[in-house]
Amino acid sequence: xxxxxxxHDIVVCPERDTLTSRERAWIAxxxxxxxxxxxRRLIGSGTALERAEFADGEDVSCEVLFxxxxxxxxxxxxxxxxxxxxxxxxxxxxxxxxxxxxGCYAAGDAVTSVHQVIVAAASGVRAAIxxxxxxxELDAERLILPHSTRYGxxxxxxxxxxxxxxxxxGCGGLVQIIDVE
Length: 181
Prior knowledge:
The strands form three sheets. A three-stranded antiparallel sheet has the order 3-4-5, with no helix packed on it. It has a two-stranded parallel ribbon with strand order 1-2. Strands 6-7 form a two-stranded antiparallel ribbon. 25% of the residues lie in helices and 15% in strands. The protein contains four helices and seven strands; from the N terminus they run βαββββααβαβ. The chain has three domains: 2-61, FAD/NAD(P)-binding domain (3-Layer(bba) Sandwich), CATH 3.50.50.60; 71-144, FAD/NAD(P)-binding domain (3-Layer(bba) Sandwich), CATH 3.50.50.60; 147-181, no CATH class. The protein is of the alpha+beta class.
């Protein structure tokens, strides 16, 4: 549907017929072409695309090809932490990009259905700010209370990796480790 804002000369080419009734109604109402089948090859001269050939021998004339690849969570970490997912199987986060597992953050394509670099970058910045604020709050608590009870468990301060030597972290020593007792 997004492409329709650029041009009305569109042919939707899913490999299999898995279209919803809503998608079918939009295709029928918009006048967009529809071709099912497996793409065999792209044909053109030089760098100019002219047509797409399908496994059944038919071809579709085209100058541009957009591919829609499904994105899904590949990391097992969020499942192991039992983080909640949205109905679209993205990792559910709050306004600070914190997951349902307190102290665990997620950002980028893992948390949104809008897969654009600028959206992913903004999401990462929001998470980074929240993480920084949480670490600063933990530092403040450490200074005020020798044994904080943040996150519902007793935390004890351990010297940061920076204090033990930046070479141990491989990232300039900017990570502090808080051991849970």
